[in-house]
Design a protein that fits this description.
CATH class of the largest domain: Mainly Alpha
Structural class: alpha+beta
Order of helices and strands: EHEEEEHHHHHEEHHHHHHHH
Helix content: 40-55%
Largest sheet: 5 strands, antiparallel
Distance between the termini: 49 Å
CATH architecture of the largest domain: Orthogonal Bundle
Number of domains: 3
DNA sequence: GGTAGACCTGGACGC
DNA sequence: GCGTCCAGGTCTACC
């Protein structure tokens, strides 16, 4: 079945789809016309694949299954969240267009960051990016999904991302052994347990009115989420007050602003401080000079 | 508040 | 083939 969604005035679907590495991780995929494809498990338990295409200035969403009214509402709401359709970038663009290194992103109407349907899923993905190479992150994520996620009925080789309930049933040694996630296994297991027990309601953080600093504290209360992971997750929540400083950030900031001299995380942070509540976004979409 | 060492995996490298 | 080193963030203990 198919339905349409209205887009905001400044919106570029391929720019959102390619905003970061999530699109390389299943069950995300990019369509041939640079739209979004994803396999989702709806609250009713129905598993389907949907695609989002840009058509005549709007979005066309097509699903591999017939949907009830409730299911279509859920899918519509989820797509809006995943593509960050609600956020207004007018203020940011007016500042960014005065910075030569941000002109390209303004012209591309970039700035929206691709999200998973749930914050739980984004936290798990972020945990899998820490202290490892991207290649290994992709492998861990693939194992997690193919082993524990629900299969797509029309193609059982493809799977949805596992729910907290499904991951809570997998013990730590099994996660270590089957997904090769090492010391991250207890973090994933504990997070799933906390969400299932109701001790941690991650999804309410998506619409929380807490100040960003408080939201950061909440996120850093999750085992395995440190400064980098929290800043990354805040970006996904539409809060850009923190720069996710990782080894890549140290490298590009050194190259761009310090003539290749070694820099500290503090120096990275001070580089973008003047951008205030937009600094994470500025860092993310900065037109970095090629590193030597 | 700052720092050192441990935590894991897998790739690169030397022998 | 085996052993060693290294990259990648976070946690914990200690100062």
């Amino acid at each position: 079945m198919t339905f349409s969604l209205k887009t905001p005035t400044s919106f570029n679907l391929p720019a959102v789809v390619r905003s970061h590495g999530w699109i390389q991780m299943p069950p995300f995929a990019e369509t041939t016309d640079h739209g979004l494809a994803y396999i989702i498990r709806l609250n009713t338990g129905k598993v389907l694949r949907f695609e989002v295409h840009a058509v005549d200035g709007n979005l066309r969403v097509s699903a591999t299954a017939l949907l009830s009214e409730v299911e279509q509402d859920e899918l519509s709401h989820t797509v809006r969240w995943m593509l960050d359709l609600e956020q207004d970038f007018t203020e940011f663009y007016s500042r960014a267009c005065q910075e030569p290194k941000l002109i390209k992103m303004v012209e591309r109407q970039a700035g929206r960051v691709l999200r998973s349907p749930t914050l739980f899923e984004d936290v798990i993905r972020t945990l899998l990016t820490t202290n490892t190479l991207w290649k290994h992150t992709l492998r861990m994520c693939r194992e997690l999904i193919t082993r524990y996620g629900d299969p797509l009925p029309c193609d059982i080789e493809l799977h949805a991302f596992p729910t907290p309930e499904q991951l809570a049933q997998v013990d730590e040694p099994t996660l270590r052994e089957q997904c090769r996630m090492g010391y991250r296994a207890p973090y994933v297991n504990e997070l799933a347990q906390r969400v299932v027990s109701g001790e941690l309601d991650l999804e309410t953080l998506k619409t929380s009115s807490l100040p960003t600093i408080e939201l950061r504290k909440e996120l850093m209360g999750i085992k395995g989420v440190g400064g980098y992971a929290a800043a990354n997750l805040l970006m996904l929540l539409g809060r850009y007050d923190y720069v996710p400083v990782d080894s890549w950030a140290l490298k590009v900031v050194s190259n761009e602003f310090y003539g290749g001299e070694k820099v500290s995380p503090k120096q990275v942070l001070s580089t973008f401080e003047r951008w205030g509540k937009w600094q994470g976004l500025v860092y993310w979409f900065w037109d970095w000079s090629p590193t030597v």
